Amino acid sequence: MRFVTSEKGIEFIKSYEALVLKAYDDGTGVWTIGYGHTAGVMPGMEITESRAVEFLQADLKRFEESVNRYVTVPLTQNMFDALVSFTFNLGTGALKRSTLLKKLNCGDITGAAGQFERFVYAGGKVMRGLVRRRAAEKEIFLNGKYLLN
Predict the structure, then answer these.
(1) What is the pLDDT of residues 107-118, one digit of tens each?
(2) Global pTM value
(3) SS3 for the chain, per residue?
(4) From the candidates 17, 49, 65, 117, which is the catalytic residue?
(5) Is 17 a catalytic residue?
């Protein structure tokens, strides 16, 4: 079965990405706009809220395809939503290479969930926002509780 992100999952991602209509450096040198959109973003770029939603929808499709492609075991909707949020934030490569994915595809749900907390660094430093996000993604993954930022 191929999943798409639920409305609760989209609201969760939006709450952690936040809407910013003018391009900004995310703190690691990556220019970002809208709800965490990075492709083709340049300094000084500005968009409307409707354009931010279009970017979000396109980005979600790309990351949904990755999760659907790389996960080989059955998932629940909440597990899928957590994995899309994780992949949205870290990229497809991080998911594909992760021990989280390896454990999940071996059927080790608990072991996979324990991997979320390893992805809390940006620029070599632990980021409080990432600690909160990974804990919330783990809660969605295991228990289906969507705790917004």
Answers:
(1) 999 999 999 999
(2) 0.94
(3) CCCCCCHHHHHHHHHHHCCEEEEEECCCCCEEEECCECCCCCCCCECCHHHHHHHHHHHHHHHHHHHHHHCCCCCCHHHHHHHHHHHHHHCHHHHHHCHHHHHHHCCCHHHHHCCHHHCCEECCEECHHHHHHHHHHHHHHHHCCCCCC
(4) 17
(5) yes
